[in-house]
Amino acid sequence: xxxxxxxxxxxxxxxxxxxxxxxxxxxxxxxxxxxxxxxxxxxxxxxxxxxxxxxxxxxxxxxxxxxxxxxxxxxxxxxxxxxxxxxxxxxxxxxxxxxxxxxxxxxxxxxxxxxxxxxxxxxxxxxxxxxxxxxxxxxxxxxxxxxxxxxxxxxxxxxxxxxxxxxxxxxxxxxxxxxxxxxxxxxxxxxxxxxxxxxxxxxxxxxxxxxxxxxxxxxxxxxxxxxxxxxxxxxx
Length: 236
Prior knowledge:
The protein is of the alpha/beta class. The protein has 2 domains: 9-171, Spore Coat Polysaccharide Biosynthesis Protein SpsA, Chain A, CATH 3.90.550.10; 191-230, no CATH class. It has helices spanning 18-24, 31-47, 65-77, 96-107, 128-135, 154-164, 182-190, 196-208, 210-214; strands spanning 9-14, 52-55, 83-87, 111-115, 121-127, 169-171, 219-223, 226-230. The longest helix is centred in the N-terminal third of the chain and has 17 residues, at 31-47. The protein starts with 8 loop residues before the first strand and ends in a 6-residue tail after the last strand. It comes from Nonlabens xylanidelens.
């Protein structure tokens, strides 16, 4: 346990079901992987000792991604919390240390962004006052729910909004989100420091997707439940 349960911070795991995620992202057979990623994310949230809420498509309300996330964050604030850490389920390299940094920052009144390599973000730590300031702008087109979600401009737009509102924030490590089948290879290239089950599921998906395997100089061999990873000659 990292922080006392009396903390005014709660965690929001914002994720669709594995079946829905795999369909949306065009990853054939990826439902087990996404369900496992959700389980890993929830397990990490639990280890912080803080209260957490899981919002799948059953709990999410809104007509697009921005409104659904905004409504879910607002719902957690309405439970009486001052700070919310919103996290997805599609970042395999997410660690407990990322939660720890975000919690510590929020305790100091500092927002936290975990940027993704595609320009989005995998984690957002924000307090209620900042959220309301960003969401309730006079110019509704630049409010939180109207940020350019699902684009490479998302993190820049959010940091601009924070800067314009004189909001202090810190950035975490830049990680890779799993948004499409091509990201499977990128995740392995980034680092093999993954949960063993998640690593094997990714390797199986890469092996089954010939378009990924044929464009890769990396050999992925799965045999008798053992995983072998060969990046080839250092000269390559």
